[in-house]
Design a protein that fits this description.
about 290 residues; single chain; about 25% strand; six-stranded antiparallel sheet; disordered N terminus
Length: about 290
């Protein structure tokens, strides 16, 4: 259990996932947020950690925690009654604030309770949402994936764009992303593109299948673009994707965004980008 405002610095998730795997039970990440308005943003941070084995994310308002902010015996008992559990992994600072004795808490509530991050046993800082977010914003999606255990994913709906990609011979799917999406830094990425609806099919594509894609993120500086976009170009296939909810998984950035002096130079670079993307994805798995 974690205060959402501290999610970027703690290591609760890694400890909880390890315990859940040991016990062969589901791992539920409970995030306590100051207000419902902040729930969406905190859930988004939680999703960054889902690749580590979290089975579900539960967001609760601050009222679920005791007024003093600490997890004391009554608070733990109330929580266990609402969310049946076999073991609770708590923030040691929150336990201390509640004046709770872990052994006593476990004995009286019938649930094993322990804190993480004992002195001298802290995990490296790279095992944090703050680190993952930092790497993503820097465009280092490979490092983020190494921490998450899977490529970072964003979801969105395919909407009409300005049609420049088709005019250049590289049609793209312009994505309207879900609010609070964590979008990697500008650049061209190798990744995977999937239509979420498994019953959908059109042209050369079928829903639920991941396809290799070159994903462009940025403002199209060659065309003096002002709006930042996420535009996957799906390699080797075509379909009418408008209105479909899709996901993009980021594997590696192949280059940063550049401004070109001519359309010919841009097209030549895009052709090289695609070859690089194909090379990267030959060594990757969807």
């Amino acid at each position: 259990m974690s205060d959402g405002s501290q999610l970027g610095s703690d290591r609760l998730v890694w400890s909880a996932v390890a315990e859940a795997r040991r016990l062969r039970v589901a791992c539920v990440l409970l995030l306590v947020v100051p207000s419902p308005a902040e729930a969406a943003a905190v859930e988004d941070d939680g999703r960054l950690l889902a690749g580590l084995g979290v089975d579900a994310i539960c967001v609760q308002p601050l009222a679920v925690a005791p007024a003093g902010g600490g997890w004391d015996e009554p608070a733990v008992a109330t929580l266990v009654a609402k969310l049946p559990a076999v073991e609770l992994v708590l923030d040691p600072v929150a336990v201390a604030a509640g004046g709770g004795d872990l052994v006593a808490l476990g004995r009286r509530t019938g649930v094993a309770v322990h804190a993480v991050d004992s002195p001298g046993q802290r995990q490296p800082d790279r095992l944090s949402v703050a680190y993952v977010r930092e790497r993503l914003l820097a465009g280092d999606v490979a490092a983020a994936a190494e921490t998450l255990g899977c490529p970072h994913r964003v979801a969105g709906v395919v909407v009409h764009g300005e049609g420049r990609g088709s005019g250049l011979g590289f049609p793209t799917a312009n994505l309207a992303l879900a609010e609070h999406s964590v979008v990697p830094g500008d650049g061209i990425y190798a990744g995977w593109f999937t239509v979420v609806d498994k019953g959908w099919s059109d042209g050369d594509m079928v829903g639920g299948i991941c396809y290799p894609a070159a994903i462009s993120i940025g403002r199209n500086p060659t065309f003096a673009g002002r709006r930042r976009t996420v535009e996957p170009h799906v390699l080797g296939v075509s379909a009418n994707l408008y209105g479909q909810t899709v996901t993009t998984d980021f594997v590696e950035r192949v280059r940063v965004t550049e401004r070109f002096d001519s359309i010919e130079e841009l097209i030549a670079t895009m052709q090289r980008d695609i070859e690089r993307v194909r090379s990267v994805l030959r060594e990757a798995h969807c």
